[in-house]
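In practice, a research group might receive sequence data for several interacting partners and want a quick structural hypothesis before committing to experiments. The following worked case mirrors that situation: the sequences arrive first, and a predicted assembly follows.
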Amino acid sequence: MSEVKEVKVMATRDAYGKTLVELGRIYKNIVVLDADLSSSTRTKYFAKEFPDRFFNFGIAEANMMGAAAGLASCGKIVFASTFAIFASQRAYNQFRQSIAYPNLNVKVVASHGGISVGEDGVSHHCTEDIASMRVIPNVTVIVPADAVETREAVKALVKHYGPAYLRLGRPKIPVIYGEDYSFEGRKLNFKIGEGITLKDGSDVTIVATGLMVYEALQAFEELRKEGISAKVINIHTIKPIDENLLIKAARETGAIVTAEEHSVIGGLGSAVAETIVQSYPVPMQFVGVKDVFAESGPWKELLKKYGLTSSDIVKAVKRVLKLKK
Amino acid sequence: MAIFDHKAESHSKELVQRLRRIALEIRKDSLLMTTKAGSGHPGGSLSAAEIIACLYFHHLRYDPENPRWEDRDRFILSKGHVCPALYSALSRAGFFPREALWTLRKIGSILQGHPDMRKTPGVEASTGSLGQGLSIGVGMALAGRIDRKSYRVYVLLGDGELDEGQVWEAAMSAAHYKLDNLLAIVDYNGLQLDGPVNEIMSIEPLAEKWRAFGWHVMEIDGHNVRQILDALDLAERIKGKPTVIIAHTVKGKGVSFMEGKVEFHGKPLTEEQLKLALKELELQERLLSTS
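A structural hypothesis for the assembly, expressed as tokens:
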């Protein structure tokens, strides 16, 4: 707690909105759809610059997904945005049937993932989407750790053919990467399906996604002070997951803690467990929302109350180390 | 290139006779296919036979040798369960060999139980989960507008399917975006899986509903080839709004013991029933030749 640094913050949805405009200038076949939330999802920037390639469908997510499929089948790269809860649940069958099954080039970019939505409460929180979207064949699922990574993810998705779910958040969160997508001076390359080792360590691996990557980095520092050497991996692509990197980490550290702003059922923790138990099982602990609905409140307080902070990760590391033989 | 583009041709008596004959062939194929498959939806396939015949053998513009030709008209079978009728038309139009029809619903077949745009040449959308086709049509119509293409988009809906709220979301958006390159056709055969539409979930007053949603509405006898052809032509002249053709039809049309019977919605004929049905349809074909 000694070094107090000024942390730059930015919402991932803001990065999305700005990147879409840049890409819209280059790719004339990008079409953007929204369901009366363009001010919140930030597709409004694209709408303003390219009114002929933006369509608002009103509060009708199911129809938006179908229209996205129709546009994609005519060669458009379609970005369809709404809140995570509506994208992944209100229009789930439409996404599966009309988009994923025919493997159409639709990117569902959902803002307001997790519980950091905050005060709007459970109706607008979404802690089930990683599970529900990754179970559908053909679908790529990405959860960026910050605004810079969001930009890289959106750029990568434009070049990647196929249906995808990109989960973003509402609040301004710490930017952990340099503007050029570097980490601690190391220039990175965003590749769909490739995790990133942010910190190397030997006692335990912390695998995190989304805003929990920042918490994992904080936990790394706290653990270091206690003499525990943690490897920190950012899994931005939950599907397809980076099996090699995870199995290697399991071998090297012998214990894994996962951290996600999502239910502990079916999300990142499950995806990591599914991977390692089949190749190199090691003890694991899951940091995430327990099997409960959260509630209204300021987002940082919600993360505390529902166990999504660096100190929750530290506690989980201590539990997993006891399980490690 | 083998582009099929005949819609400018006049609606001659010969054309009408030919389309009526094709509709009978589609009926025979649909019954044969579903009985051979041991499952499927014969009733609704029969009610849509003339509509599909008029589209694929007169009105639509397409190229069976190049199914993804970008200027083609798009036809979406939103009531995906009556795909036997569509498959029959597609094979007759040259999209794939006729032998494929007898593999319907079998392992490894290009003909799935419900339409699959990745497996079947000529199928434009993967449907079968009802209520989604009109939304897909909205997307295709918007793409046509962005790209300044002259193709048109056709969506065939079931009457029971109109229970789905998404159909009305799509209807609202099509009118909002003034999609006059989009045409919906309702196969109004009056029966859905559990029984008569007006008992299961009333959809009336149907024409008024579409009008209230901002559509131009036409009502026709969906088994009258001349009426279908005229309505399809007329719809192209309606500008500034989408058009819906409410086609009044009979479920199981053409086979006396199937007509108006809900039990043939999702059950194929037995071998004996099939023989009787084919006999009836062949008799109608012979009558056509002499008329």
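Before designing any experiment, note the following. Chain B has a mean pLDDT of 97. The radius of gyration of chain B is 18 Å.
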